[in-house]
Design goal:
By secondary structure, the chain is an alpha/beta fold. It contains 9 helices and 6 strands; from the N terminus they run E-H-E-H-E-H-E-H-E-H-E-H-H-H-H.
């Protein structure tokens, strides 16, 4: 299996490469310092998992991800960053990124994230969800839970209504209840929450 690390800081990149080689002996770990290099590596090796810095948020990054999702749908993407804001999280979900991890994460977290991503699951760094209360999930009704899962897939209220055969007004009511019961403030937080409980 091929894993690609994309980061413009050689020291950080080499550190991740070293961790992966020490813990995944059967993986071929590749690296690139920018998206031009990464594109060549992708064409040649078709990596199964890609770790990439998402703090740049530039046109080259967006084009790379868009092309990757279009031409290599089986490739899983793990976004990395020093400081990940809510808008970064929202952008990641919109682009179809499969996981988010902070660069200051423990080695064990990187290893766990890879195993999770490799199984087709998503991963969200615990620091990004530290304020969420996961004890209230049982307070959701079956329908509220269904709506929450659809939110995590990036569905609009209209799409959720059609999928669950309910009105948009009912969807809005369920979402209001979800936010209230789980102490969430927006759809991004709801998607993060859903991603964690679905693991």
């Amino acid at each position: 299996m091929n894993i690609l690390i994309i980061d413009n800081f050689p020291i950080f990149r080499k550190g991740i490469v070293s961790i992966l080689k020490d813990n995944f002996l059967d993986y071929n770990v590749l690296e690139a310092s920018n998206f031009s290099e990464a594109s060549l590596v992708v064409k040649k090796y078709l990596p199964h998992i890609i770790f990439m810095d998402i703090n740049s948020n530039n046109e080259e990054e967006n084009s790379f991800i868009e092309s990757l999702k279009k031409n290599n749908q089986d490739t899983r993407i793990m976004a990395m960053g020093n400081f990940i804001k809510k808008e970064d999280i929202n952008r990641c979900f919109n682009m179809g990124i499969n996981g988010i991890i902070l660069k200051n994460a423990l080695i064990e977290d990187f290893i766990y994230a890879i195993k999770l991503i490799n199984r087709g699951k998503s991963y969200t760094d615990p620091e990004l969800t530290s304020n969420m209360n996961f004890n209230n999930i049982e307070s959701l009704t079956k329908r509220e839970y269904d709506v929450l899962m659809e939110i995590s897939k990036g569905k609009t209220n209209n799409e959720i209504a059609k999928k669950l055969f309910i009105s948009e007004h009912t969807v809005k009511k369920h979402i209001g209840n979800i936010f209230s019961k789980l102490h969430l403030s927006n759809r991004t937080e709801a998607a993060l929450y859903a991603g964690i409980i679905a693991v």
